[in-house]
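Figure 3 (text version): C-alpha cells given as input.
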C-alpha cells in the first residue's frame, strides 16, 4: 500500500497543470520562445539568430511604420509590417521593406519569408520580387492568407547545417 501511495504522489507531481492564460505579460512568452530558440540553435548548430527591425517615426518621435522580424540560419522572416493609415501611399512601406531586404541580404540570408492577407499588401511584396508560394483560403473567412518568399543572396550555411537533423542545403542560384 505504501508503494501505491508513493506512485500516485509521484504521478501528481509530474502532471503539469493546463490552464488558459490569455493575458500573459510579454516577458513570459518571450522567455519561453527563447528556450525554443535555444533548442533550435543546439539542434542545427546555427546560433546566428538576431532581430531585424526598422522603425519609421514622425517628427514627434511616434512610430508610424515598422518592418520587423528576424534572421537565422540563412533565412529571414518578416513578421510585422505596418504603416499608419494617415501615412500610407507615400512610399513608406516600400522604404521599410527595402531596408529589411537589404539588411537580410547583408546578413547573408538566402530567402525572406512573409505572410500577408489578401486585403493587406501582397502587391507590395510582389513588386519587390517576392513570389507567392502558398495561399490559405478562408483565413479569415472570405479572404486568404498568402505566403510569399524572395531569394536574395547566396547562402553561407551555418557550420553544422550540412549534418544537422532536418537541415537543408541551398540549391545553387
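Below: residues designed for each position.
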Amino acid at each position: 500500500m505504501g508503494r501505491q501511495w508513493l506512485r500516485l504522489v509521484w504521478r501528481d507531481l509530474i502532471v503539469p497543470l493546463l490552464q488558459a492564460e490569455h493575458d500573459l505579460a510579454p516577458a513570459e512568452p518571450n522567455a519561453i520562445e527563447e528556450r525554443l530558440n535555444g533548442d533550435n540553435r543546439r539542434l542545427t548548430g546555427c546560433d546566428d539568430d538576431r532581430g531585424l527591425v526598422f522603425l519609421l517615426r514622425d517628427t514627434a518621435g511616434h512610430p508610424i511604420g515598422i518592418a520587423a522580424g528576424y534572421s537565422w540560419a540563412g533565412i529571414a522572416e518578416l513578421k510585422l509590417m505596418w504603416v499608419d493609415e494617415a501615412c500610407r501611399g507615400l512610399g513608406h512601406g516600400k522604404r521599410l521593406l527595402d531596408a529589411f531586404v537589404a539588411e537580410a541580404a547583408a546578413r547573408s540570408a538566402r530567402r525572406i519569408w512573409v505572410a500577408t492577407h489578401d486585403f493587406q499588401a501582397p502587391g507590395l511584396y510582389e513588386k519587390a520580387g517576392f513570389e507567392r508560394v502558398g495561399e490559405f483560403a478562408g483565413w479569415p473567412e472570405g479572404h486568404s492568407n498568402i505566403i510569399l518568399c524572395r531569394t536574395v543572396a547566396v547562402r553561407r550555411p551555418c557550420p553544422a547545417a550540412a549534418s544537422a537533423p532536418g537541415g537543408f542545403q541551398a540549391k545553387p542560384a
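The helical segments are 2-14, 27-44, 92-106, 122-127.
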